[in-house]
Design goal:
- By secondary structure, the chain is an alpha+beta fold.
- The protein folds into two domains: 2-59 and 264-416, no CATH class; 74-250, no CATH class.
- The chain is built from 18 helices and ten strands.
- It has helices at 2-16, 23-65, 81-89, 123-128, 130-133, 153-159, 199-202, 210-217, 236-246, 257-260, 262-300, 302-310, 315-344, 348-359, 366-369, 380-396, 399-407, 410-416, and strands at residues 68-72, 94-108, 113-121, 136-139, 148-152, 166-177, 180-194, 205-209, 225-230, 252-256.
- It has a six-stranded mixed barrel.
- Helix 1 (2-16) packs across helix 13 (315-344), helix 11 packs across helix 13 (315-344) and helix 13 (315-344) runs antiparallel to helix 17.
- The longest helix has 43 residues, at 23-65.
- The radius of gyration is 32 Å and the shape is elongated.
């Protein structure tokens, strides 16, 4: 058995290195090799980018909005937050509880204005938001006092504001008068500027001390939403049910991160699957190249195959020669494709910046993709999947050529030579 396989391996090696008039097959072999290797590389890089996009968006959205959000069922807000806080603290999976107020406002600098999302919370709660406290690029957020604000970097840039400057906020919740509602306007000192790398938040969020937010929004001792952080995001549905049970008598309802970001998570998964399907066509085309090359090889080597068959080589052994030839191309191309993909994936952001600089084109617009950088997350499962797909496609591409190799009767084939 071993000697037989060695013979078939040796014959396939000779066939893959043709000479003279058979050079055309060598070109097809090279094209097949580069087709598979480039397809594998592209698939690994693209799937890594899709994984990175999903992880970055999830970490930033959930890191700023919480795993579970508790909303009031009425417009008056949550007025029994201390009792709710104690009940939530009893749940083992809960790691942080952040009550806050939220409202849409108009933010104004000296000469510019922009829509913004006001968030009022206590200094302790703001410091506990790791995604904010660990991404301060200027100023600080320690012990935010009355009359101070913390804003995103893109909002600061658009309003041309720096730490120490004044930002004016205009609220639709104004003062009632005989002439209608007069919008409330207050100015705050910019104490810190954060940048989390997500344009939607860097360009719109303004944090205030909770007392300032209540005064500005003309509200009493209430909260608008309570964010709940968990130790494990995958347990959010179980914890949500427990929260609903504990807070049944309170006038509130809860939503987990899957509900609040369902459309985004589904869109990311659909996009990844579609990209996998579309880019797999590269491997299919490369597999067709292998099949066509082997068919041409069989046609050219028809006399030699017939002689081997007449000397006693079985149909199975003759077909294995071409299966091994196709798999050699597939295995080697897959190996180099995987190697290139693994080496390139961690540096996609640097490659993007280089190409953008060379061609003066924006390849990853933050305004459309929410993130300011192109992330990448390489997963062993994706590498394994792409490798198996490539090898399977190489194997399938050898079935028809190997059948053609044994379909003709050796006596008839030699008679026609």
């Amino acid at each position: 058995m071993v000697r037989s396989l060695f013979l078939e391996w040796w014959i396939s090696k000779r066939y893959l290195r043709p000479k003279g008039k058979e050079r055309f097959f060598s070109i097809i072999t090279v094209l097949s090799f580069f087709g598979i290797s480039s397809g594998v590389t592209i698939l690994i890089v693209v799937m890594s980018v899709m994984n990175g996009l999903r992880s970055e968006l999830f970490d930033k959205i959930v890191g700023l909005n919480g795993h579970i959000l508790i909303h009031p069922s009425s417009e008056k807000g949550i007025d029994n937050s201390s009792e709710i806080y104690e009940l939530l603290s009893e749940i083992e999976e809960v790691t942080n509880i952040i009550p806050m107020l939220e409202s849409q406002v108009l933010a104004m600098g000296e000469s510019q204005s922009s829509g913004a999302l006001l968030r009022g919370l206590s200094p302790k709660s703001l410091n506990s938001l790791n995604i904010i406290s660990s991404n301060i690029i200027s100023g600080d957020i320690n012990n935010i006092q009355s009359g101070e604000a913390v804003i995103g970097s893109r909002l600061a840039s658009s309003l041309r504001l720096y730490p120490g400057d004044n930002i004016t906020l205009l609220s639709p919740r104004g003062i009632s008068s005989p002439f209608g509602t007069i919008p409330r306007s207050l100015s705050f000192d910019v104490k810190g500027v954060f940048e989390i790398g997500m344009t939607d938040y860097d360009g719109s969020v303004v944090f205030l001390n909770i007392e300032d937010a209540r005064k500005f929004l003309n509200l009493g001792e209430v909260y608008g939403v309570i964010e709940v952080m968990l130790s494990d995001a995958d347990k959010s549905l179980v914890v949500k049910d427990e929260i609903d049970l504990k807070l049944k008598k309170y006038n509130v309802y809860s939503r987990d991160w899957r509900e609040t970001n369902a459309s985004l998570a589904e869109a990311m998964m659909v996009e990844k699957n579609v990209m996998l399907l579309v880019l797999s066509l590269i491997l299919i085309i490369a597999g067709i190249n292998i099949a066509s090359g082997l068919v041409m090889l069989i046609k050219d080597k028809g006399r030699e195959i017939s002689i081997l068959r007449a000397m006693g080589m079985s149909k199975l052994k003759a077909s294995r020669v071409f299966i091994i030839s196709g798999l050699k191309i597939g295995f080697s191309a897959t190996f180099w494709g995987v190697l290139a993909g693994v080496l390139i994936s961690p540096y996609v952001e640097e490659i993007r910046l280089t190409l953008s600089y060379i061609f003066q084109v924006t390849f990853f617009n933050p305004e459309f993709y929410f993130l300011s950088q192109l992330p990448s997350e390489l997963k062993i499962s994706d590498v394994t999947l792409v490798s198996l797909m490539s090898i399977l496609m190489s194997l399938l591409s050898t079935i028809y050529p190997s059948y053609r190799a044994i379909a003709r009767d050796p006596v008839e084939a030699l008679r026609n030579e």
